[in-house]
User: Fold this.
Amino acid sequence: MPDPQPDEGSFPPLRDIIDRYELRARKSLGQNFLLDLNLTRRIARAAGDISDCTVIEIGPGPGGLTRALLDEGAKQIIAVERDKRCLEALKELRSAFPDRLALIEGDALKVTPQSLVGETEPLRIIANLPYNVATELLFMWLVDARRYLSLTLMFQKEVAMRIVAAPGSKTYGRLSVMTQWLCETKLHFDIPARAFTPAPKVTSSLVGLTPRPHPLAPADRKALTAVTVAAFGQRRKMLRGSLKSLGCNTGMLIEKAGIEGTRRAEELSVEEFCRLARVYAELGKT
Assistant:
């Protein structure tokens, strides 16, 4: 029988790793290290069965979540990190799991997860995202959402609430529409600031995204983007006013979509925004 692989407890405490490699979190990289092992395990378990897929982890830092993912049986982890100090700190972990952990030096905004694995390899993204690029990364991944089995991502709570918000709520907006159009969303749990080093000024939340087999309703992405940007850009206005920035015949757009012009953006469902987007595309303004 092969020797058992080392588990999470076989390695030095994360605080020792941070001290040894002088891993002081850098604000410019949006770094906040999560050291609570109970929380990293909860995050890994929230992602579901990771034993039969490749996990992409963004910004592993000193490796707290990486350890938990390995301990929970991840088939393979590809960790994308731009901080050379963190890459050095993770080499010990990679040496212990050479067949299950790969380290990629790079900027997550310039590395597409699909480029790191085979076209048919089951793929999940699990990450404590840098706050300063979290939304930008999400929009990037949504372009090819169906490529992933799931995305389990940590955001500032304010952003997380916008992702899962329902129509009619104050937090419902463009991010809600574009995400829910392509994914089922779930708010898993909150993570207090004190769990991080250094402690941020905000609470964080873990969100689960399960890509839909097909978008919630037919729509052209560019058209839907344009419509939601216009509608929520002036969300206090009625649609007949806010949609004027689209540069088309707003009256015709609203009438053909069968939506009352006196309604406001936060009142429309995702399906209704898709209806507006289809008409907008037909009007040749995409």
